[in-house]
Design goal:
Elements: H1 4-8, H2 15-20, E1 42-46, H3 53-62, E2 66-71, E3 83-87, H4 96-100, E4 105-108, H5 119-139, E5 144-150, H6 161-180, E6 183-189, E7 191-193, E8 201-205, E9 216-218, H7 219-231, E10 238-245, H8 252-256
Parallel strand pairs: 1-2, 1-4, 2-3, 4-5, 5-6, 6-10, 7-9
Antiparallel strand pairs: 8-10
Helix pairs in contact: 3-7, 5-6
Length: 263
């Protein structure tokens, strides 16, 4: 079975050169939007105990935001100042609305191991779970929803069969979120690694991945982008891919969010 990293590395090329030739590369010089006040701003993180969701929690707490940490394993977590751990499951929609009450934004970072998950598990995590969480958010009066999705799903015709169920489920989740009526941001990631955050810049890309690779993004940088989308208006109703690259200023992506095209 091909690893996801090897799949994204099949074509040899330079990340920076490929992206500079891409028409979807976001501009760098957009004016920065004002960041909302931290006072009383609460962000609900679904998948808060996961490998990326936990970094979203860390980033929010480091910036002084209140957090609802929502997970099936929330009751196993140690108490931390600023976070309310709440047990809930996106497969049980009736439990979500009360759980989300009081939040102003939601970050959805639920994930499962696609190599060990059934098609139903993938649908639950990436399609019906997103739809249930977005619907519950809307009914709870929340108007900002940030979804972590995957790059490459628009090129599913090129994927081996073992990847298609996961990508199809994520496509369904994205479509369901757009239809709910929330102000959404869909942040797609290619291969994910665990390098320290902040070592490389972050590029924003709309459209298909260009030829070349490997295309990777580390979890700390994913979390930084998800948090920014939750607390500002710069990425509302936008879908884009994030990639690590060595040639751009590390924080230029924050301004580039405003220059992305609305879906």
């Amino acid at each position: 079975m091909l690893s996801r990293r090897r799949l994204l590395s099949r074509s040899v090329g330079t990340l920076t050169g490929a992206l500079l030739l891409s028409r979807g590369l976001a501009g760098i010089g957009s004016a920065r939007a004002a960041t909302p006040t931290r006072d009383k701003l609460t962000v609900a993180v679904l998948g808060a105990t996961g490998r990326t969701g936990s970094k979203v929690v860390d980033a929010l707490l480091a910036q002084g935001y209140a957090v609802k940490g929502i997970s099936r394993r929330a009751s196993q977590q140690m108490p931390r100042p600023g976070i309310d751990w709440i047990n809930a499951d996106v497969r049980e929609p009736m439990s979500l609305q009360a759980t989300l009450q009081g939040a102003q934004a939601v970050v959805y970072s639920v994930g499962v191991d696609f190599t060990k998950s059934s098609p139903k598990d993938l649908e639950d995590a990436y399609h019906t779970g997103v739809e249930a969480a977005a619907g519950a958010s809307f009914r709870a009066g929340i108007r900002r929803f940030v979804l972590q999705s995957s790059a490459g799903r628009v090129r599913s015709r090129d994927l081996p069969p073992e990847y298609r169920a996961s990508m199809d489920a994520k496509a369904g989740g994205e479509a369901a979120l757009r239809a709910i009526g929330l102000g959404y941001s869909i942040v797609r990631t290619p291969g994910v690694w665990d390098r320290p955050g902040g070592e490389l810049g972050i590029l924003l890309l709309q459209g298909e991945l260009p030829v070349g690779g490997p295309f990777m993004i580390n979890r700390t940088d994913i979390a930084a982008v998800l948090v920014e989308c939750a607390i500002t208006t710069k990425a509302v109703n936008k879908t884009f891919t994030i990639l690590n690259a060595a040639t751009f200023e590390r924080d230029s992506w924050r301004d580039a969010l405003a220059g992305l095209s609305v879906d």
